[in-house]
Here is the input.
Amino acid sequence: MEDFEKMKKTKGGLMSFNNFLSTSRNREISLENFARPAAFNTNSVGILFVMTIDTAICTKSSTPFAD
Here is the structure.
């Protein structure tokens, strides 16, 4: 929980991850498969990041998000 409190303080700032994030354009898939199950583990916090991705700047060779 201490890490989560630190994360909340960075709201509006930048974050970096040293792993992959699971992405979906369907909010319910994200909630059902990841965020809600964390509620049953007292050592976890489920977080749903909402990202806006400008597909106009993505090249055909890159894969910035997936379903």
Notes: The radius of gyration is 14 Å. The mean pLDDT is 78. Residues 22-61 form one domain. The longest helix spans residues 27-35.
